[in-house]
Amino acid sequence: MKRRRSGGWTNSLSTPAVSLAGTPAAPPLGYLSWTFGQGARDPYYIMVVIYIFYPYFSNTVVGDPVRGQALIGYLTAGAGFILAATAPFLGAIADKDGRRKPWVLGTVLVMGVGAMLLWFVKPAGAGLGITLSLILLLLIKVAFTTSEVFHNAMLPSVAPVNRVGLISGLAFSLGNVGGLLLMLFVLFAFSMPGTQAWSFLPAEPLFGIDQAAHEHNRIVGPIAGVWMLLMTLPVLLFTPDGRASSTPMWQLARQGVADVVQTLRQVKHYSNIGIYLLARMFFIDGMVGVMTFGGVYASGTFGWDTTTLLIFGLCTSASAMLGAYIGGRLDDKVGSIRALQIAIGVSSAVLLTLVSVQPDTVLYVVHVGTDPVWDAPYFSTFAELFYFCTNQVFAMFFVTGLSASRTLMAKISPPEMATQFFGLFALSATVTAFLAPLLVAATTEWFNSQRVGFASLASLMIIGALLLLRVKEEQAKVAGT
């Protein structure tokens, strides 16, 4: 089959274009529906993990920001250990079976139900209690990343080869748009009513939400769970899946394990890709860690409430969308490796700037006043405004790094093995997912300081950047050819 110049399906004979996997690509409805999978997951991560629920859990449920940040770090580290031991083998088994939708459906059901149960995580360890709450959050985290692996593995076989970047970028945009819309809803329906005398706000939170009981914090779990279940439906209904294998599952499991072992044996031939994936494990861990702990750190440092964190999250998501555009242009102009190096370098510098901020200090030694510098009810002090603006810069370059890292993987992978290597690319962000949270947890507890724990993430980005110096932007050939 000849590759068509236009992505998607041709007009004359309705012949499908070729995918990265070398098979016919899905029709537009199929690959556009695929983007809804990320649109389903990302709002949970934005609302629960980054901006609202995790800071609430740390400060209100645990009741101690330092201990809360440490517990969240150990929680995420535990999930990373579980994923490192299971995800590569589960992915190989699913490749042998040919189907990924059953795995997506199963993990989304676990996430959706688990997110709804977050409503029962009440202040001061009431409700489910701290231990059960941590177990629930651990289960959701493992299911979240497992679902991401299988959903991402569908992309090379459903997207036209010349639209992979566009479709992947559209999925990122859809996830951020979903997060923005839901955060706006929570902000105006539950968080701000009764706190500001603005005419466009309801006089009190809708549906009887009780702010005193922190229900405006807890409601984000059920909202994210329902959204996740509904938004995954287009993937399940319209995105094509592989054909089921007739081989018994126990044989598929054995073959999957053998495939993982075989790939490891060929690592010398694919050393350039191997070094890149190793580098990515470090710098992505560090960058994602900054996004994960940024709200927790700001909440503990400035005492930001849910409304302030929501506004912070809305603006940061908008900056991330801008970063996706800037990153694509930068990638085209200077190359993927250079764009990635710039993103990591700026992100590291921004992190060290973020942790220089205290309520009365910026840049470690510059003392600032704690009185409001303007009449706005949010981000009123100089230190808060400095932290807010600095974090917007990080958000832009964080997404630039995500975009450039995916483009670089496409450039250095052999086309004949695109599916396998994109699977390894997805796994490279999970097998060491415990590093950043474990580092934050250990350093936070050891030094009894949120600042030191948060700053420790810079070391991961620096290690990744140094390893990236050994990566060449050249396409590998299949072993034996």
Structure, explained:
The structure is a single chain. The chain is an all-alpha fold. The protein has a single domain (28-240, 247-468), classed as Up-down Bundle (Growth Hormone, Chain: A). It is 69% helix and 1% strand. The chain is built from 19 helices and 2 strands. It has helices spanning 28-51, 53-61, 65-97, 101-117, 129-153, 155-158, 164-191, 215-218, 220-231, 233-238, 249-265, 271-302, 306-334, 336-354, 382-412, 418-427, 435-447, 450-455, 457-468; strands spanning 361-362, 366-367. A two-stranded antiparallel ribbon has the order 1-2. Strand 1 and strand 2 form a beta hairpin. Helix 1 (28-51) packs across helix 13 and helix 5 (129-153) packs antiparallel against helix 16. It is globular. The chain starts with 27 loop residues before the first helix and ends in a 13-residue tail after the last helix. Residues 1-14 have low confidence and may be disordered.
Read across the widest sheet, the strand sequence of neighbours is 1-2
Helix/strand-derived category reads mainly alpha
Count of individual helical segments: 19
- Write down how many β-strands occur, each being a DSSP E stretch of 2 or more residues: 2
Index terms:
single chain; 481 residues; mainly alpha; Growth Hormone, Chain: A; 2 strands; 69% helix; disordered N terminus
Brief rundown of the structure:
By secondary structure, the protein is mainly alpha-helical. It has 19 helices and 2 strands.
Which helices and strands appear, and what pairs or packs with what?
Layout lengths: L27 H24 L1 H9 L3 H33 L3 H17 L11 H25 L1 H4 L5 H28 L23 H4 L1 H12 L1 H6 L10 H17 L5 H32 L3 H29 L1 H19 L6 E2 L3 E2 L14 H31 L5 H10 L7 H13 L2 H6 L1 H12 L13
Antiparallel strand pairs: 1-2
Helix pairs in contact: 1-7, 1-9, 1-13, 2-3, 2-12, 3-5, 3-11, 3-17, 4-5, 4-9, 5-16, 7-13, 12-15, 12-17, 12-19, 13-14, 13-15, 14-15, 14-19
